[in-house]
Design brief:
The chain is mainly α and 220 residues long. It contains 11 helices and no strands. It has helices spanning 2-13, 18-24, 29-39, 45-63, 72-86, 88-102, 111-121, 123-127, 132-139, 155-187, 191-219. Helix 4 crosses helix 5 (72-86), helix 6 crosses helix 11 and helix 9 (132-139) packs antiparallel against helix 10. The longest helix is centred in the C-terminal third of the chain and has 33 residues, at 155-187.
């Protein structure tokens, strides 16, 4: 009887509202991932993957200076459309590869559980979409160009540029932290193995490419 009561109490502690999922993941990360994993809670996976795909596409547009060749409206439309439509694919492939390489580390997560974790781990990065509002307001298409002028509007533009840059870096770091904890919880492995599980898929993909490049270079 006492055992049943303790079990019920333990289960009740793991019941999280939708609001708590989005708030507690920042500070009680492992608890949230345990709840999501134990309950196969996929309610927000699709929308989070779409938003993560859009976020990633905007990042690529900025890093590749797409604004040099396209007007702002075209860049935004392309990022939203392609990011929302196809942006989830790299995350799915990555989750599948983490499931595969995780088995080498005695990990227990499958592709679906790791994709669910990945979608929620991206929440801090998704928040950076909000930072596009002041960036576009002050710099327009300049944020997607190679010759952005951060001094054009005086002190205000300088403050906006460096403040949003600092926030983006901070949110990126926190995404990484949440991601590592999420892998650890879903795969049931240590933090050290979690970091290794995060790196291995990239090494597998890049390894052959680097090897081929070296062979071509030697042949030449």
């Amino acid at each position: 009887m006492i055992l049943d009561e303790n079990l019920q109490e333990s289960n009740s502690e793991l019941k999280l509202s939708d609001k708590e999922i989005f708030t507690k993941i920042w500070t009680s990360t492992r608890l949230v991932f345990k709840y999501l994993n134990d309950n196969n809670y996929d309610k927000f996976v699709t929308i989070l993957l779409i938003l993560a795909g859009i976020t990633r596409t905007f990042d690529r547009a900025s890093s590749q200076n797409m604004g040099d060749d396209m007007p702002l409206i075209a860049v935004m439309a392309l990022c939203i459309f392609l990011g929302g439509l196809l942006g989830w694919i790299p995350y799915y492939i990555y989750a599948a590869m983490m499931s595969w390489t995780g088995k080498w580390l005695n990990g227990q997560g499958n592709t679906n559980s790791l994709l669910r974790m990945t979608a929620h781990a991206m929440i801090p990065s998704i928040v950076t979409l909000v930072l596009l509002i002041p960036q576009i307001a002050f710099f327009g298409n300049g944020i997607f160009q190679s010759n952005i002028d951060i001094y054009g509007s005086g002190l205000a533009s300088i403050i906006i540029f460096y403040t949003t840059l600092l926030l983006e870096i901070s949110l990126g770091i926190w995404t990484l932290v949440i991601f590592v904890i999420g892998i650890s919880e879903v795969q049931k492995i240590s933090i050290g193995k979690s970091i290794l599980n995060m790196i291995l898929p990239g090494l597998i993909i890049l390894g052959p490419i680097v090897l081929i490049a070296l062979i071509v270079r030697l042949v030449r």
